[in-house]
């Protein structure tokens, strides 16, 4: 599949960088917010971009590998949480309300039928196969799930979303994400497999052995994203990658969530390396392996609050920092406009 992602506007970045140095503060004193303002300008091609409203897309799907007992919760929870999302009772609902987000939940492959007018029904199949035994899905299904994400992102951007937050819900999906990350990074599995929803030490060792077994069965080519998705999964990870690709094509900044989201970002990057230019890492999840995924992507997260929920929640909590970065450029006075003396002459500016 071919994606056409525009280059970052480095010229505007330089302009904003020079302008930020004229604002009424010592050079560099707003730290990471300054870098963020420059990045947002380069992505959007706008010196004074709007990041609001953000669009939050939560993709839900089930994982056949959940049968192996790799989660602290049963697979029915995926469907149950989808109902919670449409009733507005999940963390991401509370946070989306706080940040004024456009919000949508997409069933891309929940194992149970879900009929609710507010759930976007895009089920590609009823959950994946157990990837320890056989391929998670066909490559046609993986492609279909990717397109679901792509189309949904297009839609929410057409409705006005200026930043994209991509969340997920899928019992078992930390096993799937760790398997993809093991294949892609080539690092020892022990560094990449974590507690997910909160499994015991014993279950953790079992989870690692499940992934080891699956990878020796499939031996996926780590440079082929469609192969990774079809052999390992999952449907929501494919959709998330598709959504990111659509946002990057439209110069809409992507605010990444936690572990599963960052692995989906790595998959998207395999489809089109330039997609990573449009990504900002929202937070560092406490899930083992997230730091490695962030390093592979070359991103430093904005916040670290020991969160490990998913759903887009970490990105939603980090989102106000994007508002602050843009408000700084839009609203602050310059030394000249406020008639403030700009440093002692000859003093080194850092
Ligand atoms: O985003 C994260 O970093 C994250 C870390 C651990 C768990 N989760 C969420 O928990 C679910 C997967 O956990 P598990 O144990 O069932 O693999 C899934 O619905 C994710 O949204 C999410
Ligand atoms: C309750 C619950 C909520 C979640 N949200 C994202 N993943 C989740 C997993 C569980 C178990």
UniProtKB/TrEMBL annotation:
Its EC number is 2.4.2.21. It comes from the Bacteria. The active site is at residue 311. It holds the Pfam family DBI_PRT. GO terms for biological process: cobalamin biosynthetic process. It catalyses: 5,6-dimethylbenzimidazole + nicotinate beta-D-ribonucleotide = alpha-ribazole 5'-phosphate + nicotinate + H(+). The keyword Transferase applies. InterPro entries: Nict_dMeBzImd_PRibTrfase (IPR003200), Nict_dMeBzImd_PRibTrfase_bact (IPR017846), Nict_dMeBzImd_PRibTrfase_N (IPR023195), Nict_dMeBzImd_PRibTrfase_sf (IPR036087). GO terms for molecular function: nicotinate-nucleotide-dimethylbenzimidazole phosphoribosyltransferase activity. Pathway: Nucleoside biosynthesis; alpha-ribazole biosynthesis; alpha-ribazole from 5,6-dimethylbenzimidazole: step 1/2. PANTHER family: NICOTINATE-NUCLEOTIDE--DIMETHYLBENZIMIDAZOLE PHOSPHORIBOSYLTRANSFERASE (PTHR43463). This is Nicotinate-nucleotide--dimethylbenzimidazole phosphoribosyltransferase. It comes from Parageobacillus thermantarcticus.
């Amino acid at each position: 599949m071919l994606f056409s992602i525009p280059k970052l506007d480095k010229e505007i970045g330089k302009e904003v960088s020079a302008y930020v140095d004229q604002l009424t503060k010592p050079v560099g004193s707003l730290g990471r917010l300054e870098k963020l303002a420059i990045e947002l300008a380069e992505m959007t091609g706008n010196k004074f971009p709007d990041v609001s409203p953000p669009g939050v897309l939560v993709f839900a799907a089930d994982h056949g590998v959940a049968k192996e007992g790799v989660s602290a919760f049963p697979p029915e929870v995926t469907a149950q949480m989808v109902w919670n999302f449409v009733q507005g009772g999940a963390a991401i609902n509370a946070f989306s309300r706080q940040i004024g987000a456009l919000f949508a939940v997409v069933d891309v492959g929940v194992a149970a039928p879900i009929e609710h007018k507010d759930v976007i029904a895009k089920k590609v199949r009823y959950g994946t196969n157990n990837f320890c035994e056989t391929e998670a899905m066909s490559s046609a299904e993986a492609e279909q799930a990717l397109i679901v994400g792509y189309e949904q992102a297009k839609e929410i951007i057409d409705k006005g979303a200026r930043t994209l937050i991509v969340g997920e819900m899928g019992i078992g999906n930390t096993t799937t994400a760790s398997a993809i990350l093991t294949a892609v990074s080539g690092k020892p599995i022990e560094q990449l497999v974590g507690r997910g929803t909160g499994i015991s030490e014993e279950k953790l060792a079992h989870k690692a052995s499940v992934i080891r077994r699956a990878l020796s069965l499939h031996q996926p080519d780590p440079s082929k994203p469609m192969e990774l998705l079809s052999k390992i999964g999952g449907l929501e990870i494919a959709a998330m990658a598709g959504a990111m690709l659509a946002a990057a094509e439209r110069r809409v900044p992507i605010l990444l969530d936690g572990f599963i989201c960052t692995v989906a970002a790595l998959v998207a990057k395999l489809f089109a390396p330039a997609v990573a230019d449009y990504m900002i890492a929202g937070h560092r999840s406490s899930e083992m392996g997230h730091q490695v995924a962030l390093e592979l992507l070359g991103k430093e997260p904005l916040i670290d609050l020991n969160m490990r929920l998913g759903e887009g929640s970490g990105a939603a909590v980090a989102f106000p920092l994007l508002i602050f970065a843009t408000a700084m450029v839009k609203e602050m006075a310059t030394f000249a406009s406020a008639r403030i003396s700009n440093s002692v002459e000859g003093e080194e500016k850092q």
